[in-house]
## 1
Amino acid sequence: MEVSTKGKSSFPGGTHPPQSKELTREGEIRPGPASTQVAVMLSQHTGAVCQPIVKKGDEVQAGQKVGDSDAFVSAPVHSPVNGKVKEIALQSHSVLGRSPAVIIEADTENNPPKQPVFNKFTSGFNEEKYSVEQICAAVREAGIVGMGGAGFPTRVKIEPNPRLPKETLIINGCECEPYITCDYRIMLEWTEQIIAGIKLARKASACSQVFIGIEDNKPRAIKVMSEALRETGNDDIKVVPVRTKYPQGGERQLIKAILNKNVPTGGIPPMIGVVVLNVATVAAIAEAVVYGQPLTHRVVTVTGEAIANPGNYYAAIGTAVGELIEFCGGITQKAAKVVLGGPMMGIAVADLTTPITKTAGAITVLTKEQIGRAKFVRRQTACIRCGRCIEVCPENLNPTRIAHAVKNNFLDAAESYYLSACIECGCCSYVCPANIEITGYIKTGKRLLARQKEKIPE
Amino acid sequence: MFRDITVSCAPHISERFSTRTVMIDVVIGLVPAMIAAGYYFRIRAAVLISACVVSAVATEWLCNAVRKKPNSLGDFSAVVTGIILALSVPPGLPVWAAIIGSVFAIAVGKMVFGGLGANIFNPAMVGRAFLTASFGMLMTTWTVPATIDSSMPVISAENKIDARTQATPLAWSKEAVKTKQGAKIVNDQLKAVFKGEVGGCLGETSALALLVGAAYLFIRRTINPHIPLAVIASASAFAGIMYLINRDAYILPLCHICSGGLLLGAFFIATDPVTAPLTKKGMWIFGIGVGTITMLIRIVGEYPEGVMFSVLLMNAVTPLIDRFCKLVPAGGKPSV
């Protein structure tokens, strides 16, 4: 039976930025740099920041927990290396500015590189011997969070919740961001591990149906996954090719494409009985439950036209961005921007000692040419009300109105245009002919609104 | 190693596409109409178009200089305004009048509001309205296209042969409405009306040329089809009903569509993004408004042509339409 790799369904709106995935698409996952020093951020997820549970000078083992929190929505962090805690200090964080981190000096003699466990999984994997409690506890202890970008603690998502029963599990293998190929490589190389992880997540969340959404610009991944599922007799897990369009990998957009349902504005997928997990996250679940390995390493795509040897690397979480770039041969041309993540939603970093976190799928180094002259000089002209931002908005918002309300400090007006419903995908800024940083204004507006609400006493 | 890296908010790439691209596309879309104007009205077309464009550009430059604002000529919007104004005036208009219209269009139609993006009314239509109000006679004197043999009887009032001027199909249609007869004379001219071999404004006579230009804009996705479709559909519906009521008094809907400024208005004037609503629903309301008011003026009102007034009237209610047609997020209104 020939597998169809053509995506039919999608969501309204969206854009088609250049893919640029050919730089790293064929690059097998290789071991990352052996760092002499790592900085494990205490906040790598949505929710409460961890408290350090080691002190300066402590000896730590690879996989040892170094930070934890009692809060429900949080995830512990672990040391990726054997070594000694150098200090607990503030480090540049891609989102939070400066944030506390456990800085660990690696033991240079006794530090075997961590091996991925994908080759230990076989097609005969059976999830029956793990109880729901065991799975949830292992996921929590391993510090697994959504590895697609949002970083929501996975335990909270998959755990049974009587108020919001789940019925559909969607595995997100879209990878709609340009340049990034880490999920693609995982699907090709770690197929059995992903399937094992899906079975475990399905059991924990008690979902009755499972879909794997993959954009149709990855026909090989669609084929490999479907064939592996068929061979193992897991026909109840369906691979759904979806149309290649940015931001297809947004969970709201993926749910729309696969189930044709909208997640309520301001709501979360469990409200309509859905849970969405990234492929890298389910692979981490399998590793944590079966081998008790915490999330200390992840696959990172180091790419961009300005990198000498772009590729996909299995790197320790806590490695500095600059170290990974050096490891890939440094830059070849004049680099203009270093982005943690992809070019559409990634965050530009100024400090190259910024460590990578659990949610960092890529480091993209862009040249002036790639950024484009308009974006590079950042010259904004007047809005001509062309409405292109409205056409591309996947959430059917009015981005130009929100942005101009924020610009003029009318937060009420911005809220009346549903400021908070924005998913910050960046489509509006991408298409804007006047080069207005619409997404930037919206993000600013959200921050201002949050600050305003803090100031109002209850 | 990274001395020169910059930071800014995401996204870090953008479509190679700017306001200037949009405006240049509109200029290219108007090229067929300009060629048709040159074919039918010869040197007059070149003179009027260049006079309007040069004076529009000069006025914008001057306004920016006076206001000590950065030069905004690079966006080409003044060029577009100049061309559209030139195409919507009679070929025989004296150059000095065209220049006055063009200066008024840019200075009062656009720059006093704060430049491109801030104006309420379509600048070219503001300029044309000013000319109509000030020089009514000049704005309703129509030259015969150069391609028509002047010894041939053409449609004109009382079928008199007039070598210099003639009535436009719409003036004739107005006459038919009043006298309840003679609509057939206009209907018989449909082919000439479509090609543009009739009296009328410089760039409005040839429906064919305008459609070719519009096709380019659609292919380039410079304009979206909602407004033109709404204008043409509502105007056709109105004209169609009237035609069915009395075939002697009212001309064919197709004649209405192809004559006067309706196509230029539908594709190039009403679609001016600055003065049209933002949302799809709003665009349909706007377009239906333009089409209906145009036909009301043409059939019921005193003027033979109404595109200019209908566009200006709908421009005035655009903020209201935008307020009325607020988008609802994909996930529905938040339940807070």
## 2
Amino acid sequence: MERVLSGLLLVTISVISFSCQNDEIKPRTTPRFSLAYIQSISNSGVEFAANIFDYGSESILEYGFLYSSSYNPNLENSEIISRKGSPPRNFVMRATHSMEYGKTYRVAAYLLTKEGLVMSQLSEFVSLGSSGFIFERISMPTEVYYGDTIQVFGRDFSRDPANYHFNISGNREMKIDVFDISETSFKAIIPKSLQPGESEVARFTIAIAQKLIEVELPMKFKAPVFYLGQSPNADFDGVATIFGDYLESPIAAVRFEDQPYNDINIVEWSKGKIVFSSRNENPQKQQSVNLLIRGKYYFLENAFSYNPSEIDIGQVLEGRIEIGASHTLTGRNFRLGPYFTNEFISEPPGMSFHTVEANEHSIRFELGFGQSEITRKVKIWSNNAGIRSENYAEFIVSNPTLPFLDVGDIFGTEFSFDDLGRGITVGDKLFFIWKNKIISFDPETKKLKTVRQVDTNVRNLAGAFAILAPNSKIYIGSYNRDYTWQFIKLIEFDPFTAQIKELPSPPTGLVIPKYVYATENSLYLDGGFARVNSSLVEQTERFKFDLNSQTWGKMDKTIPLTGFQGTMKTFRYQGKLYAVGLLNWSDDFNVIQEFSPATEEWITIKTIDRKGEVTTNQPIVIDNQLFLFYGHQYSKIDLLTFTESHIRDYYWGYDQLSTVTYKNKIYTYAPGFKIYETDPNYFTY
Amino acid sequence: MVFKKGFVWVLIFFLHLNSFGIGFEKCHDCFYDDYTNNNSDSIVLEKVKIYPFVLAGTVFQGIIKQEKHSERADSFSNIVSPTLVTGIRIQQIPDIKNFSIDFGVGLNYGKTSVDSRFETGEDIVYGTEVFKELTVLVPLYFNYSFVNLGTSEVYVGLGGIFSSTRQKIDFSIMDYSLKNDFFTLLIFDGFVERKNQALNPAFKAGAQWKKGKRRTFVTEFQGFFQSNLYTINLINDTSKYNQFSALFLLGYRF
């Protein structure tokens, strides 16, 4: 029986040992311990406990608990309560900060060994709040700037950056990131969005979990520094740069000195550089600006200079100075916004410029005479911001008429519609008989000289006429428009001696003669209108003054009635005497008549395609050309062929009685203005 | 605790087996008489005779690998546990000589601990789980006596054991280490999974000796096989084990 028993036992054991599973397991080194047990929860914190099951073989450096509202707490994102060294079998610790009421937190027990972190599975609990952190102080540089680090010291700070709501200057919207967090301090960078207040005090708000503290402390920003000498010159429509340091500001502005309400477009604003649009309504050679930096204004005198606008070298333009005639110059750095502010200067000076278009490479403008005396060739410089361009353009003026001379006050200072003057050309001697003055004019020297002032009660010395006689003397007819004195006074002026002599008055009441002309020996007054009982009545009688005997005689011949007060203007050409004008009121056109010395009669030789009255005192003869000015219309008659040409694109706005000619050019005194020079070569037909 | 108390009670019952009551007393004779006289005093169903038995002994658990990676190591401990089986033998079935049926119910109580380890390039997992198992066994055997000397007998049987187990984890921990992060996470979840109910094929070999008038001393060896019994899920690696249970039992039939 024993044999059977032991046999069965043997079978059993051998079966078992044959089939037994028992792998060899490499020994484990890490410690083993329990979950964090939540011992108690109150409004001041939570107590955790844990048990060590097995210390493992690794050297234990630290033990404790980490807790966080994160689903995945770790050493980085969690609050840690810990002790150094190897733990007892049971250890208990209390968490007192960084927990909000009603929020769920997760906690793990952990041991830190030389080989790493061993952490238990998580336990969850709902917090009833915590005592929170203790603030101690804030450390920062005496003068701060953006990017500087400030450090906040205290106790029981949360280690989870997500728990922080830190800001400066009481702007709760602005959350500043914190870093280098420990239980006793954290750091933050002064953000560029911080706009310092006027008082150099900053309000710091430190909110961690549910605890919030506000602290006001002095915080002084570094003052901006400007390196003014380094600013490069700016183009007018480019950018200007100001270098410096500590320039940044959340609210920043640049304004030109004289435009306090015009915020300039800012291109770049960094710590060391401010770049802004240099476009300026009123640029100055040395431009000063105001800068608004961190709530303070800084006036920078002569902050930068403008580059001159430059025109390309060697440009020659030709054209007229008038509205609608524009001229284009190429160059660079013109003022584009607003383009019409481009400025120029000219030589001779005084021209006015009106820019109608400007771009990066060219500028188009119209010219005005301004108050200047203009020569045929004008030099033009760009002169923006008062800086003259290096190059100039030559402008050849093709206007027939140019301002020639400012006359000063020789013609008087007050002018009336009743004032009247006449120009007389005696070869190279030019005279303006203006009111009661005889003024000589020398275009070569641009000199005007009063050669004779007639002391008379007559308003206008040459009120009736002024003609040049073949004896090179000037005969002047004057009359007054008052009712008491109805006869023309006849005055003889010697252009060479400047002597004047009153001659016997004509024996007629004529005030507006139809023809006034002189031959070698005689002065003629043919027809016209006489004042009779305060009205004008046409006369047909002719009177002749014998220049030798100084006596008047009435001629037998008469002229026909014309019904027209306009006079026939007489001129001499190659020894012959001509008259031009509208003969009869009923005539459509002017005529040219030739005087026959033999019959002492006027013979019409040419009808011209012009109406009205010739406005110059003398019809203008230059070489073989007769120029007839009618105020609005202008003609040229070739005296060799009596062919007529119409002058186009010419307009003269002033009285033309005071017109003289010199060296093929025409000079006209525009009453109240100046003397203009007209070059017939520039007339177009 | 209930589990433990129950076990103590069963042990006391087993140790004081001899002093168990008058009801058994009667059967001592029956066994002998029925065997010789067909005495109607014994528990008889027509010609069939039924003998109750009580056996106690030890279960040796053999764990057999079913599925496992080479980097995986598993170690089982405490694989010997006490067992008590009680039941009836049905014998002298008409016309089937030397044939009997054993039917019973048994209890097995064991405490097991499993240690595991799995390592990859990035991580190492250690696991330890300690658990208790209380198993109710319901064996059914068909026996054949191939030696029958009247006072002693040797037999073999084939059948099956239905087992139903309650597992209770005492302690469980997994140490999950990420090698490069120098980080270990302790996880307290159970990772040994056990199949709780199964019908398992079983066999046995036994011998018996008549002791006195009414008692027969019985010794039996039983074995049964449980496939896929343990699944061990060590975080990212699973191994599976079968179990062969060998029972060595001693006791009496009355």
